[in-house]
Amino acid sequence: MTSTALPTTDELRARARACLRNIGAEVAEGEDFPARTPITGEPLFGLRAAGETDVEEALTAARAAFLTWRTTPAPRRGDLVRRLGELLREHRSDLADLVTVEAGKIRSEALGEVQEMIDICDFAVGLSRQLYGRTIASERPGHRLAETWHPLGVVGVVSAFNFPVAVWSWNTAVALVCGDTVVWKPSELTPLTALACHRLLARAAEETGAPRDVHRLLLGDRAVGERLVDDPRVALVSATGSTRMGREVGPRVAARLGRSLLELGGNNAAIVAPSADLDLAVQGIVFAAAGTAGQRCTTLRRLIVHRDIADSLAERLTTVYGKLPVGDPFDATTLVGPLVTTGALDRMQHALTRVRADGGELLAGGNRRLAEAAPAAAYTEPALVRVDEQTDVVREETFAPILYVLGYDTLDEAIALHNDVPQGLSSSIFTRDQREAEVFLSAAGSDCGIANVNIGTSGAEIGGAFGGEKDTGGGRESGSDAWKSYMRSATNTVNYSGELTLAQGVSFL
Ligand code: NAD
């Protein structure tokens, strides 16, 4: 199914301009850095990319702002984030429109992404009164041993196109309450949403009396990101994107002994056991695999199904895949919007060619859509492919809607298949057998940072730590004690005894 006609680029440009105007953001037009829309694949505005002097100026300003911000009491820092959350509520619709224009998300998912920003602001405001250290029992009489947490410095945030605003907010809301300042290099594919977020935060800073330079924005491609990566003034580089990017960023930051927090690619799987509620599983699988046109880091890419139910489940999925409405993400009936670029579509087609050559059987989808109406855009039917084994292409992350379906006989075999990929982000099992669920969640089960039961791999909530192992980079953001990545701890020993007692019973002098 293809939903109704696409809007024109002129209409989308006018819509983006109106949203930016409502938010108060300005677009400096006429330069060489284009903002595009995947809805038509065409350019909307020319912007200006940051040059070397812009990076230098931003880092100097953010470092200077840090010196003030770090001594502002944390609950007062929370005031800034609370105000940001209010402004996000006020401009929810404008921001969601910009996410749809620039990342191609359907309206409901774009609104969901903005809701996630609001949720992390709430979370971070609470956190601003809970940056707890602890008191540790000292072995020495008359001594107090304590752990305290202090702001870290400038945080360089490098973000991906597919969550253009949420990932920024996970990092920024938490970093700000932790007393850090932020320099943000968004994806080159999503500069307009970045301009909007930066403006809202600047307004929140003006209104709450926070230093203007608590947040700086640098538009540009990876070269701008590389400058942040290499600059010793950036205490923490929080980089979200492909494993390729992480492999470049991680060693470069480590070479200057800086800190990095890496949130990289996934190759997420769900196991469907014979006892699974298949109605629920089908819903969970289709949202996780085809939602966001397969462009979530947590997108379901592999389905490991017990052989007793593999044929019937594949049949049901084939029927649903045949009816998924593909098209204009602003159309309320659309469930699958465009891929971000035609390059992404080429990579999807290439993966489908490879998996077929490996013996895979295409059960549904995979065809390009709307090529005549929008030749520069990349609409595709999500693809469902039955495979016998995990060949190289199955073990890679292709950032597009391809779901590979594999069979298994024993749970041990399913878990081994599940973990036999380089990535370790998200995972799930559909089962009504509690023992199976517990094995999957145990130390001998899923090796991912996220492991779910009877729900798909995508759609995490704020509050739980988000991130994964192996090629996913090991970072954790947005919940639990992920805030500790944005602070430095100090151990304090205070002697109030009047005598000098050395630890471990050492005597001296
Ligand atoms: P990408 O790696 O192409 O780019 C991500 C960002 O990194 C961009 O801002 C880019 O300019 C910058 N960059 C690229 N190379 C760099 C370098 N050498 N030094 C500094 N900066 C560099 O990723 P993308 O296509 O925008 O996003 C999709 C990828 O991101 C997928 O692999 C997806 O799984 C992953 N992702 C992961 C998470 C997570 O939380 N684990 C979240 C969203 C996306």
From TrEMBL:
It is an enzyme of class 1 (oxidoreductase). PROSITE patterns: ALDEHYDE_DEHYDR_GLU. Its EC number is 1.2.1.3. SUPFAM superfamilies: ALDH-like. Residues 30-489 form the Aldehyde dehydrogenase domain. GO terms for molecular function: aldehyde dehydrogenase (NAD+) activity. Keywords: NAD, Oxidoreductase. The active site is at E263. InterPro entries: Ald_DH/histidinol_DH, Ald_DH_C, Ald_DH_CS_GLU, Ald_DH_N, Aldehyde_DH_dom, ALDH7A1-like. Belongs to the aldehyde dehydrogenase family. Homotetramer. This is aldehyde dehydrogenase (NAD(+)). The lineage of its organism: Bacteria, Bacillati, Actinomycetota, Actinomycetes, Kitasatosporales.
